[in-house]
Amino acid sequence: MGDDFNELGARWIKFVSWREATDLRGPLIAIPMDPPVTGKLIIPQRIPFSGTHLTMWNPVPPPASDWKPYPGDGASLWWRHHSGTLMPAWALWPNLVELLSGKEDRSIDIRDEHGRLPLHETLRFKAGVYAVPAVNEALAVLLDALYALRSGKLPALALPDGRAKLTVLLSHDCDILGGHDWLTQAVRLFRAGRAMTSGNLAEAGRRLRAIAQNATSPGRFYLENLLDMIALESRYGFRSICYILNGNNGRFGARDHPRWIKKLAESLPPGWELGLHYNYDTFENAETFAAQQAQLTALTGRTAIAGRAHYLRFNFLTSPRFLQAQGIQLDESSGWVSKLSFRNGIAGPFRPFDSATRRGLSLIEVPLLIADNSLRLDGQFRTAQRIITHLSRIGGMITVLFHPGAADNPEEPSSTGAYAQLIELTHAMGAESLTPSQILERAGTSSFGQRMTDLEGIN
């Protein structure tokens, strides 16, 4: 989608004020940056598009009586002037600015025990639109209109075959590589006792067997499980990144002896990447962060340029700037694991807006979408299928996190086979697998389309 959007958008799209937009005439797209919004609450409107449905909110009234809705039946995507000018019929630009610049984080003071913004406190959750990739949907609508303007036709309300690109970023948070540490074994023993008390003997047996198995074979279902996932990825032509939790402090600390991290680094095939799983105590603490970075480099001989925070301990307003200052170039910490959701309304990478400098950062943020925990907690695999299918029609990136021990582990039967199903599904839909290094290589700094996700110069 990117090349076409950049080439056509520079010619046909005008970002202007509402007053200027209402005066524009001729075949072009006028995007008002300050449109009047008819209401303050999110009232979703679903509109058929490209074999799926788009969800828009904050409708914008017509500029004047000579602007007509398109399509004309029910909810509309456009206000269209007879001269050929198109204007979004919803607050496209303000909506995207709110999502990508962290308005939710600025306007909601409530935080959980880890300092994170809870999904259920957001207006998007209450309105049921937290699983809407609003940025991708807006870009798909604009690209459809750009093709129409180029050919002198009305928007087709569908993207041409092959234009909706689906990509996938696979990752593994390596909290545990050997399941024989005292904390893991103690938690198993506690859960076994609780299961026996409630009469769930099958659950108790699973936990007790795992204690015995990992006491004699520490890597079983953890490092071995991770290497099995990597072998599966390889069979489908996919690659992934492993985010390593190391260090001495933080919530429960790093559980693995350094030799396990070395063993993993030596076992990775060429093309698979290592990153930093920021320890709990490194949250916006430059000293502890640097110490963890240095230790990982010493253990693996690699310098981490990508990472994700342990427990997703992340403040969208301040953490991106902190991470960039520590040398991180791509981060995957923005996300919610309680539900499959689009933390910033986007399925793909973007550069966060830094309110301190009023500019976009160079750091690339890639919000997390699918985590093994969320699939287990809510049985949301069907939801994942729907989201992946939706993005295959409009374009976007699927981000997937599976921990060692989460796939094909008899101790966690609820997620058995889920990783293989996700890989098979995304592969069947023609998804291209990208690693953080590949995303960084592709990231441009001067394209027209980047304004839609950098937000430089917003009010």
What features would you highlight for this structure?
single chain, 459 residues, alpha/beta, nine-stranded parallel β-sheet, three-stranded antiparallel β-sheet, 18 strands, 15% strand
SSE diagram, text form:
Layout: H1 2-12, E1 13-16, H2 18-23, E2 29-32, E3 45-49, E4 52-56, E5 67-70, E6 78-81, E7 86-88, H3 92-100, H4 103-107, H5 123-127, H6 134-151, E8 166-174, H7 182-197, H8 201-216, H9 223-235, E9 240-244, H10 258-267, E10 273-278, H11 286-300, E11 306-309, H12 319-325, E12 330-331, E13 353-354, E14 359-360, E15 364-365, E16 370-371, H13 372-378, H14 381-394, E17 396-401, H15 418-428, E18 432-433, H16 436-442, H17 451-454
Parallel strand pairs: 1-2, 8-9, 8-17, 8-18, 9-10, 10-11, 11-12, 12-15, 16-17
Antiparallel strand pairs: 3-4, 5-6, 6-7, 13-14
Helix pairs in contact: 1-6, 7-8, 14-15
